[in-house]
Specification:
Layout: H1 28-32, E1 40-47, E2 53-61, E3 71-73, E4 77-85, E5 92-105, E6 111-122, E7 132-140, E8 144-149, E9 152-160, E10 172-184, E11 191-200, H2 210-218, E12 232-234, E13 238-244, E14 248-259, E15 263-265, E16 269-277, H3 281-287, E17 295-304, E18 320-327, E19 329-332, E20 342-350, E21 359-361, E22 363-373, E23 380-382, H4 393-397, E24 400-409, H5 446-452
Parallel strand pairs: 3-11, 15-24
Antiparallel strand pairs: 1-2, 2-4, 4-7, 5-6, 5-10, 8-9, 10-11, 12-14, 13-14, 13-23, 14-16, 16-20, 17-18, 17-22, 19-20, 21-22, 22-24
Length: 455
């Protein structure tokens, strides 16, 4: 069998670079490219049956101190060198370095979307090479790929290159790797040295409204939807009906507003406001409180032909996978004078740095949705959903009252540094999720372990 390398375990992903004042107003390509001299060199090798290395792959990347996987951002050039000991090559015909990438759903074969090959050495009829030989190589990552629809050869679409993706129990994976192949004669098995690498597209948030930018710069309070209509997406109002203390039925109106544009960098807060209106002051005091409100960030992973569908919440259980990856916290708003029958709360939802940016790619996509769930408080019994009978409150609490997609990106808008406005003592309590990565990933797909050296 062909010998293959064992790649080191995935380590925590190095976060995207901090964008300083000198780079804040430039386009993304201008700071994704940096001198190769600043990259860290990593070495991978393939050993023979006696444990002696004879193929070496040296790659310069953005990896932290040379540990873990090589790491690259948008439009980076992957540069390095390959070395082969021809005294152990045994009839080598040529040496090729390849950049490969593909999408793999669990239990299915990989669908490859990148296959770039560079022949480093080829044997001629009269040549005979001995000893150690080395060759430099350089491959630039493309910005996008062209994908043809199945069964429709004439219809092709261009998609941005998706990020690496691998999590424990994930339904699909996106894998990037460098492969050195020493091809030999027809009667001898080719030898390959494989190293996986992490790819992170650098996507920038759109700039917020002028008033929000001013608030961020000066540290002044955020202006709400009424005073800054360009800075908020006000979602449709929803009616919330139920019974208070088993005594009387009430109906409230809830309106959730989300800061715009709806693109948020990893590690930043999502500003929110919630307005609750009703004629029953006791019900308002009970339900228009931080402990009764739950706004969550849900992640949708879509697999197969449904992956590029705009109906991200309409998938089947075998091709749509949803998990909650963040919860908002609220506090009473200090903006404006209180009005009878109205309560206004401000809130934030922290976008964890460990989350993956969203992407849409054929056969696999990751997208995010903000959702306001049913209000919950002691003494409050929500009415059963219309048309249903006997629905439990725990079941109805999981159904969103209103929701809207949001986009998670890599870096802040140019010149913008978001800040948190949560009062002291308001902090989201993160619960550990065994299946969600803390950095780049914890464990990859076990089927890769034997074929590609993943750990």
């Amino acid at each position: 069998m062909a010998a293959e390398s064992a790649s080191p375990p995935y380590e925590d992903l190095v976060p995207p670079p901090t964008i300083g004042p000198d780079l804040a107003d430039q386009e993304l390509p201008s700071y994704t490219v940096r001198s190769q001299e600043e990259f860290v060199q990593q070495e991978h090798q393939l050993e023979d049956s006696k444990g002696r290395p004879w193929i070496w792959l040296r790659v310069k990347s953005r990896a932290k101190e040379g540990k873990g996987l090589p790491l690259f951002y948008s439009r980076d050039t992957i540069a390095g060198e390959v070395e082969v000991d021809f005294d152990k090559a045994g009839g080598a015909k040529n040496v090729v370095v390849s950049l490969l990438a593909g999408v793999t759903a669990v239990g299915q074969e990989e669908i490859r979307f990148l296959d770039i090959n560079s022949v480093l050495w080829s044997k001629t009829a009269s040549s005979k090479t001995t000893g150690k030989q080395k060759w430099p190589f350089s491959i630039t990552l493309p910005a996008d790929t062209t994908v043809s629809e199945r069964g429709k050869k004439q219809q092709a679409h261009i998609y941005p290159l998706p990020p690496s993706f691998s999590e424990r129990a994930s339904p699909a994976y996106i894998d990037y790797r460098l492969v050195v192949t020493v091809k030999r004669s027809s009667f001898r098995v080719n030898q390959t040295l494989t190293t996986n690498f992490a790819y992170v597209p650098l996507t920038r948030a759109q700039p917020p409204s002028a008033l929000r930018q001013l608030a961020y710069r000066e540290g002044s309070p955020l202006v709400g939807p009424e005073g800054d209509p360009e800075g908020w997406k006000v979602l449709p109002s929803v009616k919330v009906a139920g019974t208070v203390f088993d005594a009387r039925k009430v109906e409230l109106e809830c309106t959730l507003a989300v800061a715009t544009p709806l693109t948020f960098p990893l590690g930043s807060p999502i500003p929110l406001t919630l307005t609750v209106k009703g004629s029953d002051e006791q019900a308002l005091d009970l339900l228009a409180t931080p402990s009764a409100i739950r706004v969550v960030l849900s992640r949708f992973r879509l697999v197969g032909s449904h992956a590029i569908s705009e109906d991200i919440e309409g998938g089947r259980s075998n091709n749509s996978f949803t998990d909650v990856c963040g919860s908002a916290f609220f506090w009473p708003s200090v903006e404006g004078a209180p009005e009878p029958g109205t309560r206004v709360l401000q809130g934030e939802l922290e976008v964890k740095k460990s989350l993956k940016i969203g992407f849409v790619y054929p056969r696999f996509s990751v997208r995010y949705v903000l959702a306001l769930l049913q209000l919950q408080a002691p003494g409050w019994a929500p009415a059963s959903p219309s048309g249903s009978s006997g629905s439990s409150s725990s079941s109805s609490a999981k159904e969103p009252l209103v929701s809207h997609p949001v986009t998670l990106v890599s870096v802040n808008a140019a010149g913008v540094v978001p800040r948190s406005y949560a009062p002291p003592g308001y902090a989201e309590k993160h619960e550990a999720d065994y299946n969600t990565t803390v950095g780049y990933l914890e464990n990859g797909n076990q089927r890769f372990l034997h074929h590609h050296g993943f750990a």
